[in-house]
Amino acid sequence: LDPGGGAMKGAEVAKEVAEGEPEPQEVVANNGDQTLLPKELARSLERTITLKRGAIGPVRTDDGDSVDGGAHGHGHAPKKPSVLAALASGLINYLLMFGLCCAYGMIMFDDYNAQHRALGVKMNLCTAWVVGLLLSLFCNVRVAIGGPDLNPVVFLAGFVSNMAKEIASQLELEYPSARRLAAAPSSGPAVEWCIGAHKQAHLAECLDYHEQLRATTIFAVAASSAVLGLLFFLSGRFNFTRYASYVPTCVMEAFLSCVGYKVFTYALHFSNYDVKQFIPAACVGVPLYFIKAYHIGNPALVIPLMLFIPLGLFYIGVYASGKNLEHETVKEWMFPQMENVPFWAVWEWSIGNPSKINFQAWLKTMPHLAVMIVVCFIDCLLKLLGTEGKLPVKVDKDREMQLFGACNLFTTLSGSSVGYMQLKFNVINAGILGNVEDRRGGLAYTALCAITWFWTIEHFNFLPRFFLSTLLFFAGAGFVCENLWGSRKYLSLGEWFQILIILAVFIIAKDLLYAVLVGILLTCADFILTYARVPCVVEQPVRRAELSCVRRAPMVQRTLNHVLNSWLLVVRLKGFIFFASAQTLVAQIREMIESEARDEVPTYKRLRFVIFDCAVMDGMDASTAKILRKLKSEAATHKVSILWTHVDKQLEDRLRHQELVQGEEQTFADTDEALHSIEEHILSYQASVNERWVRLNPTFALQQRFVVARQGFEPFADVFSDDCSRHGCPWRYCSGVAMQQYSTLLWTPGQMDVGLFLVHSGSVALFQDLPDLLGESHASWPSPVAVYTPGWFLNRESLLFQPTRYYAVALEDGELVTWSREEWRLMDRERPRMASEIARSVMKQQAADTAHSGRNGKKENFLPETMFNKLRAINAARALASVNLYEVSSDRGAQSTLPPMPPTLQHDVRTAFATFCDAGPVARKPEPSGQSGQEREDGFAPPTRSNSMPCGDGHDAGAGVVPDDAKLPPDRVVDALMFAGIFNTPLSLTDSPGLSMQEFFDLAHEAAMLRLGNAQVEQLTRCFEEADEDKSGSLDLTELADTLTSVFSHKLEPEEIEALITEWTEDTKKLDVDKFLGLTSRLARIREQDWQLLQGLAEMMSEGSAPSEAKYSMTKTLTSEMLMQVAPDLTEEKAVEMLWFADWRSGGKRSEKGISFCDVVCAVLQPPLRRAGRLPPRPREHQIDVREHKAVPAHVEKLNKLAEAEEHNMKTFLSHSQDSKLLFQGTGIDEKDEADKEDEEAGPLSCRQRIHLLLEDPTSSVPAQFLWMFMGMFIMVSVFVMVIQPLASPDSWAQTNAWEDTGEAFFWWAFEAFVTVVFTLEYLLRLSVANAMGTQTTIGFIVEPMNLCDLVAILPFYVELLVSDGTSTGFKMLRIVRLLRLTRITRISRLAKKHPLFGPVAAVMLVIWFIYLKTAA
């Protein structure tokens, strides 16, 4: 808050808040204008945000771990560091890593290069201990475990394969056409390659081939480690990690899904596709992943038991059967013997023999290297993110990335693969240690890896095939579960299908590079198609009113809303405008313009302005500019102006270069400027329409004169809703403030000593900030928050004792009315109703201001309060005329009676004369508070203020005695009358030399009171006597109310009656006959001009009948024919245009048929453009006899009844109006709404709906639950049979025309037919009721991924009946079709409604079995 504004500083607030605490909270100021949160509160906020972030959902990593941000520590309290736990953790992590390094080495070198697998194992082991050591010592995550990762290893395997082919080609050796990864043992012996006879035939070439392959592989691995290490370091050093998110998510998920598929392929290959080996491996490895992912059990026990119990059982079985590892049947379960490679061989075979590095072969790996860099970089970042979410640690990503870069400097020097933090091992290490502070687990792991690297890896020969397959199933399950299956939860259907397409390409091509190319093409195509469909606008362009920040009078605001709804179209452009989306936009705008011409819409209703808002537009291509140029040309022929907003200098130059703008009036700095320019144009046009209304009847012109005169004299016309609220002289309680254009700064934010302001002339803008003018000669100003015109209150917060907001700067020369706290207290004490009315107006404007801040012009079809009160006044005037008070009879004149003015009004008249007469002293020049002429330090001039209000004639209203010969100049008579509260007085005193006190008093007497003829006096006296039931000679409040009701047939508001009585007597309970006559005379004079207006309206709407017969008709409509009859010079188009401008409540829908009486009154009294004059001076006499308004408790009940009667009478007054409901809406006499109708109770569910719930919602009923259980069991049985068939009866699985067989094949076919028929009936039944609940369409049901899988699962059976012709082509088609039957496994995911584990389990089973059937079966 501004310290100079008197507001409490942030430190003081914090001190009060912390009162009673042991230590005050710390508050730090930033640049003197902001207050920082206390540290304790900031930490509390951080904890709250962290908890909320954890509640959003699990964070997934690339290797399939579901990271639950709220699962830190798995729900266990931290344990103390333990040496035993550290050794156990190091041993378990070492065993896992050693097994994976062996698998990685075997993946890197396929069967044709199997003799180098020991080198691959050593290269990965070196990464494990080097990266593990550096992370254990320097990583901020103390439990971090580093090592090689499966992602780069898969790519390195591709490198080796490509380099092997290239080297063989250069040596003129015929490399096998395909890698025999997929070859099952039953397919025959593998092709010999540089072994056996092939080696004897090409001995020199084979020796050279292996030497080159070793050296080139070591160089390629070291180069990839160097590139990735450098990228890791630079990304951390220069904060490039944020660019990783630019890779499309679907493409990244597809690549990782391909990696998972390949890992499963390696897992089955390591098991020789032997069911006896890979099924146990999958049954251990896959559950091991889910146990780790779902934190089941203690990892120190679960992982060793699940890995070594199967291993122990294997050896127990081998030796219990009397066999050993050399036995032929046991060799099928073991890998070929792997000999140890010394650790120095890496350098010996590479830099020790550099001539063998084949750079040409290495260059063949460049495309794969680019993909590897992207995938591994994102993989590393996701592991960091996963560690932060999985463990209760804070990870500095930039620092850790730099550390990874440093680690890979050493891996490069040692010729080993790239390495970084391993999330799985981090979690296992922390779980076994029981804390995140002990580094010794990682050091123990590092030591064991280093010993193995330096010593030997020959203990690998004791690991059976299924053990490494188990580890690969464990590693690959995460890719399938999270990247392939889990991605469907947050990707769209199209994006998920892209993953499936990329995976299918990879399966067919058996090369990730082709999958990458397809992924890039799919992404580009999807981007182009999606971007072409994406609109180039923030929202669809709709013709509706949008308002500038300028606040105007309510009636003016409603007229602007009405006109802008037809004239304006705002188009908010966004992003880079693509020609395809621009075509759609331009077609919409062109159709709007041309349709109006085709439909011959009148000119005044057509579109006039199109605003292109460029606030969030990035640019446009040349084609878009050409399209918009054509639109501009076509719009000009239809007189439609195209404007551009939020245009800076650079954009303006570009628009001019593209010939989209020419003049200066076509571009604006912001939308507010353009809207303000359009509004000024509309107001100028509306003023010309308003002149046509004024010329229709002299009474209308006179009414406009009265409105203009009062607006120029005072700003209270819209403040005091009725005469009783203005009772008294408001000028005694306020002061005047003069402001200078662009110089006066009324207040700054945070000030408490600023009073309430009311704009009389000029305008004031509120700014959020001011430009820094120091040293800037051409500082740019921000757009104002709001601009307030005459009639609007400023600093409304002062009534609530709140500090000021924004910066208030004068935009025009003008004057303000202001109330200081002392003046407000005085008014509240002496004139409580006046203070209450001003406060009510302030709150009303506050609500309107809040609604206006939305900018979209909200349609308000209810009358403004000023106009509503005018209609009530006209209705009251009609009631007064009903008793002939306005008839000019023969007894008027000498025999008439002019009742005296009420005492308060007499005093106000004398005060007005004393204030405006020519005997007053010369007015002092207003000076600022402080030194005269002094400027503020910020360059603004403070508001000028004086003890007296500045007067237009140069006089000051100081105290003093008025001389007897004082004269009131003729040009000040009307001002003096209005000063006294006497308005709407037509005078012509230009030839008068001036009025004395008595002459002015007599004139004011005639202007304020209506003369009563003898007959009228007698009639009113009889009414008085009849009402005086107790014959006391006076009327109390109840009797007066009854009298006015019987005389005028019009119920006055209780407050109005009370205010009228207060003017006449201090005793509000008694009113004698003379005061009763005076009260009636005063009331009739106030309503006299309303009666004149009613007569003028009746004449215009009489349709040729005599005015005397039509003058009371207020329910007719005004048509264009009536207007042309009154004003023959009007054309039909102009007459309808006048009605259209006036018909703002219905949006112009009724203008052609005619508008109601209410709309006519609003049109006639539409205020012209405001031309305010100078404020009047203060009253010269300060001792004014003022009586407070006191309520009459004894008659409260009667007053309430009068109010209800008045409400009923007013409703009857306009009961025949076409839109009376709209008239009374939002006003004080709103009709009572009928009771809200109760919602109709939902009827019973239809048959289709019940079937839908039965099939789709197991919780809807008990039968639905039983059906779900039955279908679940049926699905499990069908999947089990489908899986077991190729194992138990491979011949029947491959047989065609099985239905013709009478043996085993027919049994399998019959069961498949039964299952397919059940699933078909279920699918068709679900399809038939898909849209029963109204929440889904039939098409939506069909394209849902799971339902597509259901359809694909049942189609193979029917296709098999068509393609099973016994030929070889039919057999191949049959194998493909039967592979599609595997999608039935995905039906297991339906059980996920009960447990989320079924979905990923089904996905894993599908991939494993697909690979097996595709390759081996």
Written account of the structure:
Helix content is 54%, strand content 5%. The N terminus is likely disordered. The chain starts with 9 loop residues before the first helix and ends with a helix. With 1417 residues, the chain is mainly α. The strands form 6 sheets. It has a 5-stranded mixed beta sheet with strand order 7-15-14-17-12, with no helix packed on it. The longest helix has 35 residues, at 203-237. The chain is built from 51 helices and 19 strands. The chain is elongated and about 145 Å long.
Question: Short description, anyone?
Answer:
The protein is mainly alpha-helical. The protein is about 55% helix and about 5% strand.
Q: Major β-sheet, in short?
A: 5 strands, mixed
Strand line-up in the sheet with most strands: 7-15-14-17-12
**What is the helical fraction, as a range of percent?**
40-55%
Q: Number of DSSP helices?
A: 51
Alpha carbon gap, first and last residue: 78 Å
* Average of pLDDT: 77
